[in-house]
Amino acid sequence: MLHEFDLISQIRRQTRPSPRLTVGIGDDAAVLDWSSRPDCMVTVDMLMEGVDFTLDMATPERIGRKALAVNLSDIAAMAGRPVACVVALALPQSGGLELGQRLTNGLLPLAEEFGVALAGGDTNTWQGPLVLSITVLGEPTGRGPVLRSGARPGDWICVTGPLGGSLLGHHLDFTPRVREAQALHAATTLHSLIDLSDGLAADLGHILEESHVGAVLRAESIPISPAAHEMSRTDGRSPLLHALADGEDFELIFTLAPKDGQKLLADLPAGVAVYHIGEITREPGLGLCHADGRHESLAPLGWKHQFTSR
Questions:
Q1: Which residues of 41-79 are buried (b: 16+ CB within 10 A; e: fewer)?
Q2: DSSP state at residue 42
Q3: pLDDT given at position 149
Q4: Contact between residue 62 and residue 172 where contact means Cβ atoms under 8 Å apart
Q5: Residues 25-84: pLDDT tens digits?
Q6: Out of 3.10.580.10, 3.30.1330.10, 3.40.50.920, 3.30.70.1170, which CATH number does the structure's domain 4-140 have?
Q7: Residue 104: what pLDDT?
Q8: Which residues belong to CATH 3.30.1330.10 in the chain?
Q9: 3-state DSSP assignment of residue 238
Q10: What are phi and psi of 152, to 5 degrees?
Q11: Which stretches in the chain have pLDDT values below 50?
């Protein structure tokens, strides 16, 4: 009978050595060389079947890739550099070995693309659905991490790509903006930064809350994806509402001084797109200004995990 150690052996054969990983899979803990910096960035994200994905609509390879990508996006959200990851799998007993292998086949190419060592993890089997939890360890770049709490009144609000309609496939196949974050951090002074996982209105709201400021977005300046327009034709919600609330775009939203924003737009780093979509205000709250002059207040639209009372 096959068991979890057969899967671990398969994964171990597939992983490549890393100069930062002095002890890898095979012992009770991994050992990483952290001599280059004294500080370590840590992020963890859990994906659950039936909540974040369904196996009848996505291949295990795409799910495994996404499980790592969302964590790399969190490192990008602080302009950091990912170094290593550990993977925990709760696999269904029926077909779990093949499923675990296919999940690994999906995440390993992305790990190699971004120089992330697979340092180890844990596997379990049970009668429940698939659950994946990945922890990524990273390090700040030379200028240090960029936080949510640094936005200042008058700052430009910028985003790195079109938004909305992620459920049509983008949420599984996106590329985390790790390179873009590092390039922006090197090119200019970022006051605040976050990745767009829950939705533009919701995630910008996190910056506003932590920075104790408000913001006004310009509706006509928000880049909207073709997928948002496609979804709008079937569900009746406007493309703009999709861009504000859908979530799982995994673009970056950041703020910076207007003079730095002008310089950035005049000389963008190679391969980086930037859209200026609004301004930070001293007054609290989030507003949306339309091209015809109409102004409306925005709630923190977007995804939230809900609790129910007993």
A1: bebebebebeebbeeeebebbbbbbbbbbbbbbbbbbbb
A2: E
A3: 96
A4: yes
A5: 666 666 778 887 788 999 999 999 988 888 888 999 999 999 999 999 999 999 999 999
A6: 3.30.1330.10
A7: 95
A8: 4-140
A9: coil
A10: -125, 145
A11: 307
Whether the CB-CB separation of 38 and 76 falls below 8 Å is answered with: no
pLDDT of residue 30: 64
Q: How many CB atoms neighbour CB 132 within 10 A?
A: 26
Residues of CATH 3.90.650.10 domain(s) within the chain?
148-297
Q: Are 278 and 215 in contact (CB under 8 A)?
A: yes
CA dist., res. 171 & res. 152, Å (int)? 31
Domain 148-297 has CATH 3.30.70.100: no
To which H or E segment does residue 167 belong? none
pTM equals: 0.90
For residue 270, give the H/E element and its range.
none
Structure tokens at 33: 């060389």
> What letter represents residue 278's amino acid?
G
